[in-house]
Here is the input.
Amino acid sequence: MRRLASWLVFASLVGSPLAGAFGESGPFLGLDLGVSDPINGNYRAHVKTGFVVSPYGGYMFNDLIGLQVQGHGLGQPADDDDRGFKNEEDWTGILGITAGPRFVLPTWDVPIFEAMELYATAQGGFFGGLSGRLDDETGGGVSIGGGIDFYVTKNVALSAFGRWNRLFMDPNPHFLPDDTVVQSPGEQGPKDAEYATVGIGLKYDFREPPAPPAPPACPACVCPECPVSRKIVLRNVYFDFDQASIRPDAVPALTEAADILKGEEGEFSLVLEGHTDSYGGESYNQGLSERRAEAVRKWLTENGVPAERIRAVGFGESRPAADNKTPSGRALNRRVEPKLEE
Here is the structure.
């Protein structure tokens, strides 16, 4: 498993064919909010659980690896002991900035994870104390952890994160003015401050899903081999993720199809079959497929096709035209497929 993970990272860095297949590059922004808890004895002897605010941004080179820059703002109240030194009750405030790689675990072949992104990040940077036990101290630090992004739309994700952090700064004071040791051996300094952060966040990914592959060459064609049922293929009548509105790029093909249908001789009925990709629950996708079929029906009737000859039905995610494990396949499944019947 370790050898496989190393190979995936190497493939992403050198731009191999595998890396190129994972998706588009692009920037992202986010904000994490949570709690900060001291985890080593020395730091626990100085502060209690506080809060953390961490804005971040970065750039994904593909779906597996990117670069992330993160800000760190912490506030932690003083511990409860009474050692009698000046400003003992002050909160410890810290600001910092780190940067490092962001690794994403590939999950496209696991259906339950299709709307999720599991990631890990390892960062290093610079920190400075603003008040309390780290007042006026500066030094380097590291932040290592990961989390889960759950995409509620194609660009917006809700996040949960957890990180281990170490600052190369030691809290003060270690002793009272007369050098009397007042801490247990496990809490005596000088030692680096270590703390864990956990919480939730919001992320915006600026990358857009890839465009669906080109459909068959004919904009609207009738199969001559079918004496009873004939099938019309409409060019580029696809839908954006979680949408049922007609896209501007579908209007020329729909106009051409409407002209053909208005000129069709004899009795016919047009069945508009709506479909979705596999994101979302079955009942939700069923309704979405019906709304897509109804949107095409409404457009055609408003452009001269007799309403009594058009019927809109939905099949949800049950009849995929392509593989739902890939972005391009899911884009093809977000469609309305018309069938012309005599």
